[in-house]
Amino acid sequence: MKKKRMFIAGDSTACIYPHFGDDNRFPRTGWGQVLDRFLPEYTIVDLALSGRSSKSFKTEENFRYLCNSIEPGDYLIIQFGHNDAKENDPTRYTSPNGEYQESLMEFVRLARRCGAAPILATSISQNRPSDPSLEVYVDAVRRLAYTEAVPLIDMYRATNNYINKAGSYASAQLFMNLEKHDKRFMNDLRYSGSEFYDKYTIDNTHLNINGALFIAEFAADMIHSILER
Known about the structure:
The structure is a single chain. The chain is of the alpha/beta class. It has six helices and five strands. A five-stranded parallel beta sheet has the order 2-1-3-4-5, sandwiched between helices. Helix 2 (99-113) packs across helix 3.
């Protein structure tokens, strides 16, 4: 029996990073890249792209692929926000109350028009107790999901609650905060060929593979809750 497909349209926190070859970026990993481990009953089609907003994603080949491929019975997870907030970049910026919501609705309408089911997702939290500049976009997604009757997975609430409860040391372990030759990854064959092998990195936005797996499980639990209603 053919598995149902679950498409992901989003940004760098969800996208696929190469873990082998010349462009090896292990352990950086998007949560969408490992979602199939927790939703084996679905085929995950992760089209998320690093650096894209809900606006700029629609200029990409991945969006054209989505438009040409999505079919009745499919699902579409829509998660943008981090790059929509970049006011100094008119190619990506969308105002949170108006343009951003309308931009997200283009994805919702695409899914519905094709007989697929849209699922809105708030952005994951950066590794900080709160992020007012991002939270206005998070709140905009929540309002849109309510007013347009679109199922919502509140990734921001799940990740930010964890960050605040776990403390700064534990939460930092989810993100791309790396020592040179980081001991956590030395036994993984993918790490020795990575661009990050010899780098000391402080990055509290992007996930390492452990963080991606941790947050993908959050996402899968919320998705299961939606689909079981």
